[in-house]
Write a structure and sequence with these properties.
mainly alpha, two-stranded parallel ribbon
Length: about 170
């Protein structure tokens, strides 16, 4: 595909399919957003924690939701397959990064109730999808609870002050 055509195709598909857009969501109170690295990439830590930690086991991260969300009328059986294909394209910043921002924004916009956060450290806060997409979208989401809103305000201050190392993780009950 030509330069940046893949995320554009995904955006057009989602724009034209509101019922599919609405399926890119966790169950109420089960949204888990992540960014950065602790001992390993946070998404890997979450996968391991789901096996042993009951507080994390029932939370849903975006890749899990994308694997369960069909992409009818496309050449992909689910959205995770579609995103994985786009991730292979170069330059990645114009393809995979933009596609992940798109679906991450939907995931955050569709969150309901308490939202959990698994945050590690990162060097470039302005290049993390959490900082540039999920956080601002969640701050506008009227369907998240008060504790989530307070955490979002704290996270925004940390990022504005260029202190992503001060971010704390939170698991909603």
């Amino acid at each position: 595909m030509p330069y940046a055509a893949a995320p554009k195709e995904l955006a057009i598909y989602l724009h034209n399919n509101k019922p599919v857009r609405e399926m890119i969501r966790a169950q109420p109170g089960k949204t888990l957003l992540y960014a950065g690295t602790n001992f390993k990439a946070c998404w890997k830590e979450i996968g391991e924690a789901k096996l042993t930690n009951p507080q994390v086991a029932d939370k849903q991260i975006l890749p899990e939701v994308l694997k369960q969300t069909a992409a009818p009328g496309s050449r992909y059986s689910n959205f995770m397959d579609w995103l994985s294909d786009i991730d292979l394209l170069h330059p990645q910043v114009d393809n995979g990064f933009m596609a992940w921002r798109l679906v991450s924004g939907l995931f955050a916009a569709n969150a309901i109730g308490a939202v959990s956060f698994w945050l590690g450290s990162w060097d470039q806060g302005d290049r993390k999808i959490f900082a540039i997409t999920e956080l601002p979208v969640l701050r506008r989401n009227k369907n998240v609870d008060a504790t989530t809103k307070e955490l979002l305000d704290y996270y925004a201050r940390c990022i504005e002050q260029k202190k992503p190392g001060d971010l704390v993780s939170f698991t909603a009950k």
